[in-house]
Amino acid sequence: MTHPARHSRAGLSAALHELDDLRTRVDQLMHAAFPAGGYPEPGTDEPWAPMADVVDAEDAYLVELELPGVDKEQITVEVADGELDIHGEIKEREHTGVRRRHTRRMGHFDFRTTLPPNADTDHVSADLASGVLTVRVPKTETGRAQHIPVTG
Description:
By secondary structure, the chain is an alpha+beta fold. Helix content is 16%, strand content 30%.
């Protein structure tokens, strides 16, 4: 009768190292295959786009960007010609010891979106809390949906 092979801790450690190496290679492949999709080529200073949600609420458009570890001084929010532009930079932190994995994005980021015609660009506000930047673009009164009664 055969028994299942038992792996030592050294074998498990080697297997985990191989999985980590495979993940690094897949990440490099994704960066090479999709450079314009928010995956900048490693070693370049190409801007990347942070993860974002755009919500069409009743009275405003909300743009929420994930920017963990970013200070408000590192972010610029601009509105011009019906376009919202959010850009900045995440700087590399100093580390002691050997870095075993690097998956966080660093460097310049840029997020742009076109605003609808009913956006009130004179009253845009931005708030950074818990690593999420929320930009609120109010809607104008003329652009809000209204119920039209049907007669006849």
